[in-house]
Amino acid sequence: MKKLLNTLFINQTDVYLSLDGDNIVLLKDQETLGRLPLHNLESVVSFGYTGASPALMGYCAEKNISLVFFTMNGRFLARVIGQSRGNVVLRKKQYRVSDDEFMSAKVARNFIVGKIYNNKWIIERMTRDYPLRVDVAQFKEVSQHLSSIILEVRKCEDLERLRGLEGQAAISYNKLFNQMILQQKEDFYFKVRSRRPPLDNVNAMLSFAYTLLANDMASALEGVGLDAYVGFLHRDRPGRVSLALDVMEELRGTYADRFVLSLINKKVVNKDDFLKKENGAVIMTDDARKKFLASWQTKKQEKITHPYLGEKIPWGLVPHAQALLLARFLRNDLDEYPPFLWK
């Protein structure tokens, strides 16, 4: 159980939620695991729930406290709310901002600042931790280049210009990615990002990690009442979770890229975990995907101090924290959306 930004997160399995007076009570096998007053909560988020009492649902609906249910793997199931009040206002604000490219750029630039900043510090950490394994001079040069791009992004008010700056930063960062692969170099290498289809083992893993992260991010956004399909940087396209792709930009490197690198460098995966199809596409075997997913769930339980909130939370709650912060910004509770800045 973790309280964060007036939201209660419950990630224990087989927990039943009930009401006692003005308190939410967590029960497992008829034993009380926790009790918390409801009057200061805006929402209750439960992972892997067993159920919730009708009395609790009725109380939360009456008090405009949302009850949100996810699977243990983070897939969004349902959001139970009372009369449509704040949720409608929040989404209408999201749609207005999305329709205005100038306003969209002012929000989207913070996602890109977060992405480039985090990639810069991935590079800096490599020079600190592996000075004899990487080209330190080249890494420092790219780090400085990323710092200069961040300064331009901070004042950018045009979406096309913003995409161009993000593209420049991505090219510089990707030039170094192969050097960050420290083990199994014959079987795992990175030359260029290939998506549809991935053409090597590393790209196959990156694509899978980005898909998982996008799904987690979309679920988190739906959980706070935002529309995951209406973005600011990524424009509307049928079936595309544009807002999830926006917000996950700042987590691509520090969450997904570092995860993939760790699986390679720790030899959790090997060349036998991949198959090459006739069209050149590389896919992961069923066993490899199972290993990948198991490691992904373990990663989500690792604790990190959130750089803006200053609280220790599991990595798996980072998308939820960012979704909450974005919702607060759109409600005018924050002057600016604070990106996730890892160091």
TrEMBL record:
The keyword GTP-binding does not apply. InterPro entries: Cas1, CRISPR-assoc_Cas1, CRISPR-assoc_Cas1_C, CRISPR-assoc_Cas1_DVULG, CRISPR-assoc_Cas1_N. Its EC number is 3.1.-.-. Its cofactor is Mg(2+); Mn(2+). One of its GO terms (molecular function) is DNA endonuclease activity. Mn(2+) binds at E166, H234, E249. Keywords: Antiviral defense, DNA-binding, Endonuclease, Hydrolase, Magnesium, Manganese, Metal-binding, Nuclease. NCBIfam families: cas1 (TIGR00287), cas1_DVULG (TIGR03640). Belongs to the CRISPR-associated endonuclease Cas1 family. Homodimer, forms a heterotetramer with a Cas2 homodimer. CRISPR (clustered regularly interspaced short palindromic repeat), is an adaptive immune system that provides protection against mobile genetic elements (viruses, transposable elements and conjugative plasmids). CRISPR clusters contain spacers, sequences complementary to antecedent mobile elements, and target invading nucleic acids. CRISPR clusters are transcribed and processed into CRISPR RNA (crRNA). Acts as a dsDNA endonuclease. Involved in the integration of spacer DNA into the CRISPR cassette. This is CRISPR-associated endonuclease Cas1. It comes from Neobacillus vireti LMG 21834.
